């Protein structure tokens, strides 16, 4: 394809502002998917994506389009909108020349609208501002067009207005994409260089590598070289997604598509790497991506210890598809062999866990997540602690450092008071407050990551009736007064329950945690004391009284089906129990720390 007729673009938006719906309309309007086979969120292929109604993985789709009798090829890259997946967004942006900035006409600009907009500006993309959902009675297109214009520095009349639901204005948007977004430029004669922006493991086809060709071309049957690993492969298939995978002979300058090399070894196709020709290699790789740092860590353990190798293999495969995932093996006295896994945030953690369970048929226990601490000892040595159980217990600690973030909160002005109060109780330091319009403010705070990563967003939402949005970025670390709180069950410390918390909150945490565990751990045949302790000092205590567990006693020998039901229910309840010493502990207990923050 002649690069002059190619337009590579993505849609960036805050969550729920309608990206997937707009993508659906574009697929229909360009005739790629006919009305009969149309289903909502066509591009969200993963079951989890469809069920949760959110986009996790980016997708690149090729659509034919005609404007004034001239054919064009539009490559649309759909991007995720949640704060945990900013990394995926910036990867997608690298493969585009333009971005559609989509804003809900009933909501206005939100925190991720801004975050994504800044990423797009950094990537030098041409921005097309668009208001969506203009069919809603509550839409205020004029007001929000002014808001957007104020931020990107255009005239309010230049903000397009569409309804992704009804299709109104979508054709005009496609025309603007063709007219305004620059065609890709590259050197067709130069040695091939293509950026890997995604890699997926497919059970039937092996590794599928998604690329954007920058220079030269990649063709069927040629030998390619992965520039960072130096591995060479034969290309068994090249193709484009349109909207299902479709074979082509070659991918040329400016095109996006996929490569299949028959490789099963997942590490050979790294996101961010440059693909070149093995026969005529390029001398310099493309700049690639910065690897994202995990924000939180948690332990994942198979309930059945025999599943450990399965979990290892599953993580290997998932990592290829999710470059942000990091893991290393660890052992827990309470939980046995498992992995310590680094995540970008809690949603990322939930999704990884769900994918491991569904796609690899595993039953897992996860421990409460924590951030990374840097512990500096008086003798000058340092420990990086990604697991509270690694917190040094011998030697004198000089300082403990915790990660901090710069947070941006957008909300209606009437909630300023309650938001400031929330940030204050989370050890925040205010950095600024600006009015975006008469009744909407942008509040900036520096906060410890540990204070915001767990339940901050929920607290913020409930205080603002759902109207506030949040985005945050790493901002280094700070020294803080932190201590390790251990939990003892039946006299034995359970490593998986240890947590690092601020000194001022340690007592409250210990009491809440002991109380929570008392609720969550079922009565056993014997009495089980629960204690919270800092070092040798016990700060809270609860007791689970003994009981003789006999569920059938309640039935008085009656109805047999009722009995069976009860037994099944009990079996179901057992599924996620783990023996810790002599005590049976349910899965919920391991993440109880989450809700006692
Ligand atoms: P993520 O993929 O999770 O980031 O969300 P998204 O931005 O892709 O949003 P999605 O397309 O899933 O739309 C969110 C909700 O808004 C859905 O319930 C859509 O039906 C609805 N919606 C999208 N566009 C319109 C529109 O133009 N008008 C109306 N009334 N509703 C819309």
From TrEMBL:
It catalyses: GTP + H2O = GDP + phosphate + H(+). The keyword Protein biosynthesis applies. The keyword Nucleotide-binding applies. It is an enzyme of class 3 (hydrolase). It is a peripheral membrane protein. Signal peptide: none annotated. Its EC number is 3.6.5.n1. It comes from the Bacteria. GO terms for molecular function: hydrolase activity; translation elongation factor activity. CDD domains: EF4_II (cd03699), EF4_III (cd16260), LepA (cd01890), lepA_C (cd03709). Residues 4-185 form the Tr-type G domain. Keywords: Cell membrane, Elongation factor, GTP-binding, Hydrolase, Membrane, Nucleotide-binding, Protein biosynthesis. GTP binds at residues 16-21, 132-135. It is found in: Cell membrane. Belongs to the TRAFAC class translation factor GTPase superfamily. Classic translation factor GTPase family. LepA subfamily. Required for accurate and efficient protein synthesis under certain stress conditions. May act as a fidelity factor of the translation reaction, by catalyzing a one-codon backward translocation of tRNAs on improperly translocated ribosomes. Back-translocation proceeds from a post-translocation (POST) complex to a pre-translocation (PRE) complex, thus giving elongation factor G a second chance to translocate the tRNAs correctly. Binds to ribosomes in a GTP-dependent manner. This is Elongation factor 4. The lineage of its organism: Bacteria, Bacillati, Actinomycetota, Actinomycetes, Propionibacteriales. The gene is lepA.
